[in-house]
Automatic annotation (TrEMBL):
Lineage summary: Bacteria, Bacillati, Bacillota, Clostridia, Lachnospirales
Residue sites binding Zn(2+) 1 per the record: 82, 190, 218
Entry binding sites for Zn(2+) 2: 103, 133
Cofactor(s) named in the record: Zn(2+)
Naturally occurring in which organism (per UniProt): Holtiella tumoricola
Metal-binding keyword on record: yes
Protein name from the UniProt record: Class II fructose-bisphosphate aldolase
Entry note: cofactor: Binds 2 Zn(2+) ions per subunit. One is catalytic and the other provides a structural contribution.
Residue numbers annotated as active site: 81 (proton donor)
One example of a Gene Ontology biological process annotation: carbohydrate metabolic process
Binding, dihydroxyacetone phosphate: 191, 219-221, 240-243
């Protein structure tokens, strides 16, 4: 069942849990995610990130995600993750995405507000929901296309107040831009953690005191169950999750190949099935954790 971001998060907002948003970079990942969601009986978000365009174009991703979303027995939102421009968001909307993220967080504050408000105006006119980002979410040097090649951590940041989401600014941003959900920065990192993250989980509560809107956690792969669930209790309602899902698929394939002799035949479709099964189980574990089970 194809739905918007607001629709898939409705129960999560009411009952105090978070919906998982899992990146689709090929057919197999989409199959794994939707199968997991159906087996868990939970709504899910299919993310497409432009950083994955070398693997899968937005046009093909749209066809794959919309096909599975419409056939699914559970609510499925088709979402553009980290849209790099207004034009990218328009393209996603035209392709049938039901939700888009405009990420102008690297711009100055006023430019971020302006770009986000324009995307909101366009998207809301056709019933599409909008996520935006305020603050800076760190990037690892491993497992993330956005990485500059050098790991970003709280320890090598001179002033965390310059990168973490400011509660007062968040209120102004949401009121002026009119977004449906806000990705906030409180110490998480895109990619694989090379050092233990320093999370400011209380900041989520501080932002929640200013604005009543669903918050989004990016860069959550690798956190403990306790850290995830504390963030959820404090107001996070959407969690982006990709790195450890795709690692699970890769690990399953590697382990199988390691067991084989060099002369053994291996069919590519068998590799795909191994990856799907492993990713599905990992997604089910994540959905369970995000559902506060």
């Amino acid at each position: 069942m194809l739905v918007t971001l607001n629709e898939v998060m409705k129960e999560a907002v009411e009952k105090g849990y978070a919906v998982g948003a899992f990146n689709v970079c090929n057919l197999e990942s989409a199959m794994a995610i939707v199968q997991a969601a159906e087996e868990m009986g939970k709504g899910v978000i299919l993310n497409y990130a432009e950083v994955h365009s070398p693997l899968l174009s937005m046009e093909i991703a749209a066809d794959i995600m919309l096909y599975f979303a419409k056939k699914a027995k559970v609510p499925v939102c088709v979402h553009l993750d980290h849209g790099t421009s207004i034009e990218s968001c328009i393209k996603a909307i035209q392709l049938g995405f039901t939700s888009v993220m405009i990420d102008a967080s690297s711009d100055d504050y006023e430019s971020n507000v302006k770009a986000t408000a324009e995307v909101v105006r366009l998207a809301h006119s056709v019933g599409v929901t909008v996520e935006a980002e305020l603050g800076h979410i760190f990037a690892s040097d491993i497992g993330v296309g956005e990485s500059s090649g050098k790991a970003e951590t709280a320890e090598n940041c001179e002033n965390l107040e310059d990168v973490y989401t400011n509660p007062v600014l968040a209120k102004d941003f949401v009121e002026r831009a009119g977004v449906d959900a806000l990705a906030i920065a409180f110490g998480t990192t895109h990619g694989i953690y090379t050092t233990k993250p320093v999370l400011d989980l209380d900041r989520i509560t501080q932002i929640k005191e200013q604005i009543d809107i669903p918050f989004v956690m990016h860069g959550g792969s690798g956190l403990s169950k306790e850290e995830f669930q504390t963030a959820i209790k404090n107001g996070v309602r959407k969690i982006n999750y990709y790195t450890y899902m795709t690692l699970a698929g890769g690990k399953a394939v590697k382990e199988k190949l390691d067991e084989m002799n060099r002369e053994d035949n291996i069919f590519f479709h068998d590799i795909a099935l191994m990856g799907i099964d492993a990713m599905k189980e990992n997604v089910k574990e994540a959905i369970s954790m995000f559902s506060m089970i």
